[in-house]
Design brief:
Elements lengths: L7 H10 L7 H21 L1 H11 L11 H16 L2 E6 L16 E9 L10 E9 L17 E7 L3 E6 L5 E6 L4 E6 L10 E3 L10 H12 L3 E2 L5 H11 L2 E4 L12 H14 L3 E3 L19 E4 L1 H13 L2
Parallel strand pairs: 1-2, 8-9, 8-10
Antiparallel strand pairs: 2-3, 3-4, 4-5, 5-6, 6-7, 10-12, 11-12
Bound molecules: 2,5-anhydro-1,6-di-O-phosphono-D-mannitol and magnesium ion (MG).
Length: about 325
């Protein structure tokens, strides 16, 4: 059993050793994501300063043009994951089309990511994050990204908050690693994470409530009557991270404006659903298990409710009773 404080690289390698037939490809793929997110974490810390230098000089100290942080995160992930040679294809929230890296033609895996989730929070020093989702290469076309959430091989997120935390699952539970910036290592801090059976927090952008289905309004009204409090940061990674630790529900329902919801299935909702379910929670679009959902295209959206079992079952019952 790994001990608290174990370095993420060693953890990944020890996990691989449990499967004698493993080739090491997934381990190297995960380590590439780890490296990219460490670089992003260090730039997030410097973001305010880059902005000042950027405004003053338009170029940074190295003479490079200062990039916006979300573009930077996207470019770092694309470069490092392409160079790893273990990814046959990449899909990003920031790109219209799938990329097939030259070095990845022998790669067994494909990866979808949201390079910097919570883009509205970048300028205001509120937590932001990276989300990733790994599938096996299938036919070798862009359609491989539409296999469905239950086909994910691994999923994870990194929150850049008061500390940076890397949480991931390969389908055998959820573990999280906190970055020690003095040595540049993610160290095991949350072993075999389990979401509480229920909580006292709901997390939703309530300004959309007038456009919600009445059943959804009834559900949140009931939670208020039961004494729940509200927290919503505008960064899904941060809101789901808190929900995993404290319990309760995170939601982005469909509304009159966004009839299919706002959040994207492939690189936001499906990986976070796998993570929450691996921690013993549940996720639904309102009726069924979200992990059964298949995106129609890489940027498809979905309504989402995820969190503790009690709150998600309660939501499903609210829907059922009012039909
Ligand atoms: P982004 O990927 O452009 O940052 O959008 C996704 C974010 C989620 O992190 C968050 O839950 C949601 O959008 C907030 O949306 P809104 O500002 O409509 O409440
Ligand atoms: Mg996002």
């Amino acid at each position: 059993m790994p001990n608290i404080g174990m370095d993420l690289n060693r953890y990944i390698l020890e996990e691989e050793r449990k499967y004698p037939s493993a080739t090491g490809s997934l381990s190297i793929a995960l380590m590439a994501i780890e490296t990219a997110t460490k670089i992003i974490a260090s730039h997030v810390r410097m973001a305010g300063l880059a902005e000042i230098f950027g405004k003053a000089m338009k170029t940074n100290i190295q003479g490079e043009e200062v990039q916006k942080l979300d573009e930077f995160a996207n470019n770092v992930l694309i470069r490092i994951l392409s160079d790893s040679g273990h990814f046959y294809a990449l899909a990003s929230e920031e790109l219209d089309e799938v990329i097939f890296p030259e070095k990845g033609t022998g790669g067994k895996y494909i990866v979808a990511f949201d390079p910097l989730d919570g883009s509205s929070n970048i300028e205001v020093n509120v937590s932001i994050g990276t989300i990733f989702s790994i599938y096996r290469k299938n036919k070798g076309t862009a359609e491989d990204f539409l296999q469905g959430g239950d086909k994910q091989i691994a999923a994870g997120y990194v929150i850049y908050g008061s500390s940076s935390v890397f949480a991931y699952t390969t389908g055998t539970g959820l573990n999280a690693f906190t970055l020690d910036p003095s040595v540049g290592l993610f160290l095991l801090s949350h072993k075999d994470m389990k979401i509480p059976e229920s909580g006292k927090i709901y997390s939703v952008n309530e300004s959309n409530s007038k456009g919600w289905d009445k059943r959804i309004r009834d559900y949140f009204d009931t939670l208020k009557d039961e004494g729940y409090t509200a927290r919503f940061s505008g960064t899904m990674v941060a809101d789901v991270h808190r929900t995993l630790l404290k319990g309760g529900v995170f939601a982005y329902p469909a509304d009159a404006k966004s009839k299919k919801g706002k959040l994207r299935l492939l690189y936001e909702v499906l990986p976070m659903s796998m993570i929450v379910e691996q921690a013993g929670g549940m996720s639904t679009e309102g009726k069924g298990d979200l992990l059964q959902a298949k995106p129609e295209e890489i940027h498809s959206r979905t309504p989402v409710f995820m969190g503790s079992r009690k709150e998600i079952v309660q939501l499903m019952n609210t829907q059922f009773m009012s039909k």
